[in-house]
């Protein structure tokens, strides 16, 4: 395969394992797809159970394969010259005749989702791709009423910032805490690929924290490695009193240097407790930096968060980190129709110290 074809197929593979809606998949051109070598590559990397460890749900596989087979059948002009891979057709037949759950049932079930990030070297060049595999629910809200069982857009953008040169420099050698970690995607990304000394993934829901532990395990993070960063999970209720001593005693890690929060401001009712927790961290360690990313679905709700920060006299900086247009995204993939700002929040310094 030529380099351009390989790049297009690699982007398609990343979309597939992130479970991007099949209607939004960016297929390679039909001449590339018709190649026997390319069809063999797609089968091996997408559908071969001996090669694929964390496969998408079978119903999703069927939807994608149906598109591919349809494209190939429509492009055949000479049946003796153009063939569809026997492996692809056999897999398609098996999925068509299998007893699969309905679309609505499938959406409620947990599935493996893999997010891919380009990793920058110290020279600023992208040298490899990092991946985080999660077991998550694709439905918007689970039966338990929590939104913490899937990864949201603001976390994906925050991850892109963290693996950038600026983000890596911010985290290098530091202790990190994630508030409202949900699936734990950001914490796992930090622990696997960024040079920090420790990570504590927290959420207010015990069931969500248990799910984070599962996702840590999927990514080889057990907290037992002597060479890697300290990796911890904990339930953390916002608004509850904390001190430097009790924090270290409760969680086995010193106070963080950097706090991350992605899509934690969507509910106006939790904003007072969230800001109170930020204030307590600042009081325990004034040098802490907080990064908050938010998908602005409701302008008034996010403005309430900013106003609460202003009332507490926090210093706030809107980071210059733009969304990547959807046609140019190479992983992770997220919609850009709604703004997703990232704010850096710190404790205000006395005038004489500025």
UniProtKB/TrEMBL annotation:
InterPro entries: Methyltransf_16, SAM-dependent_MTases_sf. SUPFAM superfamilies: S-adenosyl-L-methionine-dependent methyltransferases (SSF53335). This is S-adenosyl-L-methionine-dependent methyltransferase. Pfam families: Methyltransf_16. One of its GO terms (cellular component) is cytoplasm. GO terms for molecular function: S-adenosylmethionine-dependent methyltransferase activity.
């Amino acid at each position: 395969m030529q380099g351009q074809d390989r790049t297009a197929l690699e982007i398609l593979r990343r979309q597939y394992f992130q479970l991007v809606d099949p209607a939004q998949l960016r297929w390679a051109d039909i001449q590339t797809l018709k190649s026997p070598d390319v069809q063999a590559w797609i089968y091996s990397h997408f559908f071969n159970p001996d090669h694929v460890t964390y496969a998408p749900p079978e119903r999703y596989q069927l939807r994608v394969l149906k598109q591919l087979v349809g494209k190939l059948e429509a492009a055949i002009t000479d049946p003796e010259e153009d063939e569809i891979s026997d492996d692809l057709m056999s897999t398609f037949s098996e999925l068509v005749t299998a007893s699969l759950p309905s679309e609505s049932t499938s959406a409620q079930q947990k599935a493996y989702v893999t997010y891919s990030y380009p990793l920058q070297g110290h020279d600023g060049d992208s040298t490899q791709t990092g991946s985080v595999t999660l077991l998550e629910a694709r439905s918007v809200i689970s039966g338990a009423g929590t939104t913490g069982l899937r990864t949201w857009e603001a976390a994906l953008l925050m991850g892109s910032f963290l693996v950038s040169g600026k983000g890596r420099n911010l985290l290098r050698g530091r202790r990190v805490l994630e508030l409202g970690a949900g699936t734990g995607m950001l914490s796992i990304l930090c622990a696997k690929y960024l040079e920090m000394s420790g990570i504590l993934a927290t959420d207010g829901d015990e069931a969500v924290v248990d799910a984070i532990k599962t996702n840590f395990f999927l990514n080889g993070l057990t907290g037992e490695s002597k060479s890697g960063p300290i990796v911890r999970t904990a339930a953390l209720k916002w608004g509850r009193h904390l001190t430097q001593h009790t924090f270290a005693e409760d969680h086995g890690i010193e106070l963080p240097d950097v706090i991350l929060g992605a899509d934690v401001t969507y509910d106006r009712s939790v904003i007072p407790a969230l800001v109170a927790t930020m204030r307590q961290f600042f009081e325990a360690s004034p040098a802490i930096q907080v990064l908050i990313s938010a998908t602005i679905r409701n302008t008034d709700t996010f403005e309430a968060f900013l106003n609460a920060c202003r009332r507490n006299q926090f210093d706030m900086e809107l980071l210059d980190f733009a969304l990547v247009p959807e046609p140019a995204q190479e992983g992770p993939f997220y919609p850009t129709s709604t703004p997703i700002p990232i704010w850096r929040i710190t404790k205000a310094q006395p005038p004489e110290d500025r």
